[in-house]
Design brief:
β6, α10 and β7 form a beta-alpha-beta unit. The protein has one domain: Rossmann fold (3-Layer(aba) Sandwich). α4 packs across α5 and α5 runs parallel beside α8. The radius of gyration is 18 Å and the shape is globular. Helices cover 38% and strands 15% of the residues. The strands form 2 sheets. It has a 5-stranded parallel β-sheet, with helices on both faces. The protein has a two-stranded antiparallel ribbon with strand order 4-5. By secondary structure, the chain is α/β, with parallel strands linked by helices.
């Protein structure tokens, strides 16, 4: 952040004091814009045991196969997905604000906290990140793509990461929110394609980026498009799972 940014932020804080989205307490002079250190500690992180494919958290002790039933059914085109948080409670609220109320800066706060997780960092380090694209009609309606914002912010926090618009969405699709697993998979099938200006290399490890992994259908569709274009190493990552 530049000196001018610091000055602008200080002036804005005088006029519009910021409160943490989690604790509702004043932010004072903390690094985040709307997520304090104490608020970040209240976010529910995902720990092992988890599905080795989609990152779905398992409660309790798990022995034997660590692939969840959903992945056994979907057989996702991505190798492994790692997710930082469970998509419930405060995380669900923050994700909603990022996506639905046009608050992209909240994505930056959440990425900074997610990047503190060692497994999340190792999974992304050195990878080329591909944000799940929006169809141009949805992009003009929303004015920004939250997955792109997340990918750009991740590149600022995790060593060796780069990103690009390697995928495009070639057909509009209804919201996945009210659809079941089968409907979600059918809804996004063949909805994505390689960007004609992108060069997909078999030697690069790609990680598809989104805000939330629910059934994995969207990430699977994106990974399928990348593999058809020649990608060999394709993984995925999201801020939340649920």
């Amino acid at each position: 952040m530049s000196l001018l940014d610091d000055l602008d932020r200080g002036l804005l804080d005088l006029v519009f004091p910021r409160d943490c989205m989690v604790t509702q307490q004043p932010m004072d002079d903390q690094a985040g814009l709307y997520l304090s250190d104490s608020g970040a500690r209240q976010l529910e992180r995902i720990h092992d045991p988890r599905c080795h494919t989609c990152g779905h958290p398992f409660d309790g002790v798990l022995e034997g196969d660590r692939t969840c039933p959903h992945c056994l059914d979907l057989k996702p085109a991505f190798g492994r997905a790692v997710c930082a948080f469970r998509a419930r409670g405060h995380i669900r609220q923050i994700i909603h604000e990022i996506k639905s109320t046009r608050c992209p800066f909240l994505a930056d706060d959440l990425v900074a906290v997610a990047a503190e997780d060692p497994l999340f960092r190792r999974h992304l380090a050195g990878a080329h990140l591909i944000p799940v694209p929006l169809h141009h009609t949805k992009l003009s309606e929303r004015s920004y793509n939250q997955a792109e914002r997340i990918a750009r912010s991740l590149c600022m926090h995790i060593p060796g990461c780069t990103w690009s618009h390697a995928l495009i969405k070639i057909k509009p699709t209804p919201s996945q929110t009210l659809l079941n697993r089968t409907e979600r998979r059918r809804n996004v099938a063949k909805a994505f394609a390689p960007n004609p200006s992108a060069r997909i290399s078999p030697n690069i490890r790609y990680v598809v980026i989104d805000d939330v992994l629910t059934t994995g259908a969207t990430l699977h569709a994106c990974a399928t498009a990348l593999r058809k274009a020649g990608a060999v190493h394709v993984d995925a990552a999201t801020l939340a799972h649920g």
